[in-house]
Amino acid sequence: MNVEKVTRFSPDGPDDAALVEWPAMDAANLESDVPVQRGHFYLNDESLGLMAGVWDCTPFTSIMRPYPVDEFMHLLEGSLTIEQEGGTATTVSAGDTFAIPKGLVCRWVQTEHVRKFFMISSNTDGETHDNPAQFGVMCPKATDPVTPIVITDTSLILGAVPEQHRHAYYTDKTGQFSVGIWHSEPFERPVYEFDHYDLMYIVKGVATVSDGAGDDQVFKAGEAVFVPKGAPYKWKNDEFVTKIFCAFTPKKTAQVSNAAE
Prior knowledge:
The chain is mostly beta strands. The chain folds into two domains: 7-134, Jelly Rolls, CATH 2.60.120.10; 147-253, Jelly Rolls (Sandwich), CATH 2.60.120. It is 0% helix and 46% strand.
């Protein structure tokens, strides 16, 4: 069942229940033996081609091929290497966040058990970038350069307008799926109906995210919050916050917003 409210992602799924075994990978896409994969979908919307959840897997190596989806990931356990056509290799370890664009020709090399949070857009009927290699494997860092956000719409801000900065690493060609980093001074917004899907990983600071009706959840550095489209949403941070995010805005509402995030 898809979540409909502000949701804390857990490495073991809802209520720390054990993950369930998923169907086996297609052996034709592997250089190794078929691994055992388990997971939980917090969201699996086939109409949007959008999935978000937690996944773990035993070691495996894929063949070199175009990556079949746009995927944002935060690694919880283990390490792996993404080898690109042409020789570039990117290794990520527990605590790292990374994203792979659809169509990037690459090989997944995993020599140990891995667990991750993820958000995937299959984009089965949309355009893809002509040269995904221009993006490569993206690994957002809190120290990466950012640019100021010009906030022109203050209707969703309570009190003083904060100073905010961001950097966009990737937006798919449809304008729906994006990955970035965001910094903000303390601010508060009133409850409103969330207009997109967002998986946020808190890098620095503490934020309270709620439904405005008493379900207040505190998220600190190292924790992930998922907000589905249509959920009642209220945000407050009393200290400086940095988050890495993956957002999906369905085509009908996809647009650049100048409101505070």
